[in-house]
Structures are given as C-alpha cells and as structure tokens.
Write the structure tokens for this entry.
Amino acid sequence: MPRLAELGQWERELLLQMIDEIPAFSGQPWVAGPPLDERRVALITTSGIHRRDDVAYADGAVANDYRVIPGDVDADDLVMSHLSTNYDRTGFQQDANVVFPIDRLRELADEGVIASLARYHYAFMGAARLPGLEPKAREVAGLLKRDAVDAVLLTPV
Amino acid sequence: MGALARWLEEEGIPTTQISLVREHTAAIRPPRALWVPFILGRPLGVPGDPAFQRRVLRAALSLFDATSGPVLEDYAEEVPVTDQPEEDGSVFACPVNFSRPVEAEGLAGELLREVAALAPWYELAVSRRRRTTATLSGLGPAEMARFLAGFIADPTTTSYRDDVPLPLALRLVTQDLKAYYLEAAAVQPGARVALEAREWFWRSTGAGQAFLRLRDVCLAHPDDTVKGFGARSLVPLAIAPRPAGADALRRY
C-alpha cells in the first residue's frame, strides 16, 4: 500500500487524475556528490507540518509558502495542517519521525553515516499547485546552498 | 513532490526521496526515489519503531551511490502485521459508548458527551506521548464541539477568531477535533489506528456523523471557499465520493 489496486475507487480515481496535472518536464537533472559520509543533509517534506506556534497552512496563493523547521527542533513540537483529509494522520500523531525522520537522521550523523545535518529544514504543503511552487523551490535551493547542503531527502505524506 | 526534487537538482542540490504513489513518481521522474509499500501518511512505515525507520532511511540515502538516473527503486520490506484482532474479537469493540442517537439530545449535546467520555483517554495519550497534535485552532475540545454544532445549526455563525477566516477556522477545528478523538482512541485497549481508526471515527462516532452534516451545510454555504472546504477537505474519499461539481483536479 498504497498500491492503487488496494485503494477504494474514489481514492484511486483522484490519484490517477493527479497524473494528468503533472507538467511535461524537459531534461533529466542529475548532480553527483561526495560519498554519503561526507554529505550535509537537509530534510524537505511536503507533509504540511510546522512548529506548533507557526501559522497553519491555508488554501489559495499562500498554500505555496513553506515553513522553516530549525535543525534543533524537538520532533514533539511539530504539528500538521495539510489541506488533504485523504491520508492517515494517526502515525504522525504517535511519532513525528514516521513523516519527518529528524531523530533518525541525528542518529546517522552521530554515527558518522552522514557528515552533518543542515541548520534549517523545510516543509511544504503538498496540496499546493505546481506552477506557484517552482519559485519557492528555487528559493529554497539558494538557501540550502548557503547552508552548504549537498544532500536533500524529501518525504511525502 | 518529485517536482520539488527536479527543481532542487536543477539548481545543483542532489536529492533523494521517498515515494508513496509509484505512478506519480514514475510520471515525474525525479532523480532518485525509493517507492515504499506503506499507507499514505506513513512514508517511514512504522511509528515508534526506530529500527524500521532507519532501514527505510538508509535505503533512501543509499540511492546517492547510483552513478546515473533517474533511479526508482522499490523497497521490499512490508510493515509487520501487529494489530491482529484478539481471539474474542474485543480489539474492535468500543470501550466508550457512542450508541445514543444524535437527535435525542441535540448535536451539541452529543458532541460534548463524546468529548467528555474521551477526556481521560486523551489525557492519558498526551501524558504517554508527551505531545498532542490537536492544537491548531487554539480551542479546547468542548469549545470546538460547541463551535461546530453552532455552525451546523446556524451557518451564519462567524469564525471563533477575527483573524482566522471562516473556512480556515472550520478546517482547523475539524482537524483538531478529529485528532482529539484519534489520539484518545489510540491508547485505549485494542487501540484503533490508521485505516481502522478512520472507519471508527466516520462510522461509529457522533462526531463523524456531525462532520457529514457539516459537509452538507458547507456545500449550501454562500462562501465558495467554505463550499470548497466541504467538498474536498472534510470527508475522506474512502468514506464518501466528492459531490458533483467539486473540482476533481485539486491535488488533495
């Protein structure tokens, strides 16, 4: 799961319709990098999470706005205000790491599997529409470069 | 999400990602993706299981070793089946009695009764987990119940706060109230989580019935944003189809 065949008809139809909205991309970007244990890693999630005191995600043009997740965030301080009601939230309610594995990455950094973690991570709300999202993504890329990040892990919800 | 990966990579940042809907990822072709066989909402697979999460994480990060792409790899390990019903079937029984008909005491009364019945379980959940996710609206559970029941009874009811527009207020309150129920139910004997919790909330609780009535009220509301909330953001597709005319191509 979610293998489409295992979902109900209406969920499956929505997910299939979303494929039609995917724009045609040209080219195939590919950036090489150093071995994993020399990389500085940032997390980016489209799960619509943010810190408890941050402004919740809303519909409309502001749906493209990202939230900054500080590198020293306590995972227990993360909440979720995604627009979609079509996915499980009980996993996140139990353990934020099932969506945003910040504690797991900290462990990997402590063990030297990765070199370090970024100073800031970023959260988007995945129901945002793609055209408005592109400038925000490129803006975040600039911020990541200034943070010397050379590996991003993206997590959906 | 694959689009984000492409744009970041175009800007010079190497990316890897976890994919939940393989068909979307195959269509977008991000540089590196690990498809996982987990339900929507759980990209790392199992909450509270660091070892499982680490294996998924290591697999996603290992895609940086590839020398060319796009790479779309399948993760083979399934989530272990641990929520098996007990032999007497009690796992699916509901320790809190929600059986009274809603009409008998009014919607507000029913919601308040349920909220009160769940309070000890919710408090236990908060103390166990040292957190709650039901804080988006800033309202307490009884205030949420009263606000929703009030709006259903009188759709001219305004937001609970001047700086929170009505459609957002409705979404935050319904998300909080549902989180309150699900966090409470998750620590009861025979804990209900994931898809089973969804069925329980929507088919066995007065709140689920109230949300379905709220949807009808929203769909008849003069504000298009409230209508859109009712059409798309309140009732899961697993419970009911979208009403005719709802924008089917919205990405949620």
Remarks:
- Chain A touches chain B through 91 residues (CB under 8 Å).
- The first strand of chain A starts at residue 40 and ends at 45.
- Chain A has a mean pLDDT of 94.
